[in-house]
Amino acid sequence: MPLVVSPSLVANTPADELADRLKRPHIGYHNLLRSRATDVPAPLTNPLTWDRWTGSQNAASVIEFSVNNLAAPAPPPYNYIGIASHNLGSRGGGLVTVEKTNPFGTYLPVVSFSPTTDDALMVLFDDLTPNGTVDQWRITIAQAGVAPQIGALYLGRALVMPHCIYGGHSPATLSRETEIEPNVSIGGRFLGRSIIRRGYRTDYEFRHLPAQWYREHFEPFVEHALRDPFFIAWKPDKFPAEVLYGWTTGDIRPVNMGVRDLMSVSFGVEGYR
Question: Is pLDDT of 178 > 70?
């Protein structure tokens, strides 16, 4: 269940508008937990995947944090959560419930889901406008006999690309990048192979992007991608399982297409599923 669409999003968004949105790539890079949140468990304040938050084996596990809405500029509405480097599927399942307080300080459910794999996942929900000066959030993970672990947790506003990706794209989660060391005897006998490192690598290309849209919406992502990983779902409607948590392989440089003030951009991504 790598991509979760909240029932509130389905209920509050006209069917045709939601269907069009879910055809287009979603990039989750905006992360309020790094810039505005307090009380976040230490391993979740950075994007590293080796350092994991670990919950309880014998009871439900809870992650609580506060988001400061006073600092300028004002935060945009939240509409996604990203979770990577976790064991929420292999630990035997268990319901994950996300809640946020209303203006009166009462926790209200945002979305609930039960992961079935340990792949990176994105949760999309209806726009939630910040309440007052501070928003309280709570993520509760049901007991399943094995302590839950999470290496990366993002909360923010997803970047939705203006157009779909069509032919010629190699889906990231099907594009393995594996470092293999073969074992061969002196006589040339095959003695097996050792997998040294495994991951995923692909390229994304976006064309016909309005120049002003690129500068206003895409350029902040480019700045983020210089330093930190991000979540990307390339075709949420047809392939919701193909979500990647990855990082760019180099600088991202746009090109003017020479027609109607449009731009194109392509970049490589390596990642962790």
Answer: no
Question: What is the chain's length?
Answer: 273
Among 105, 135, 160, identify where a domain stops.
160
* pLDDT of res. 218: 95
Residue with tokens 């304040």: 45
d(CA 199, CA 130): 36
**Does one domain contain both 19 and 107?**
yes
Residue 80's nearest CA partner among 36, 22, 125 is 125
User: Which run of H or E residues covers position 220?
Assistant: helix 219-225
Question: Given this model, what pLDDT does residue 197 score?
Answer: 62
Give yes or no: residues 100 and 190 share one domain. Answer: no
Integer Cα distance of 57 and 141 in angstroms: 11
Here the tokens at position 125 are 């929900």
User: Which of 98, 89, 88 is CA-nearest to residue 155?
Assistant: 98
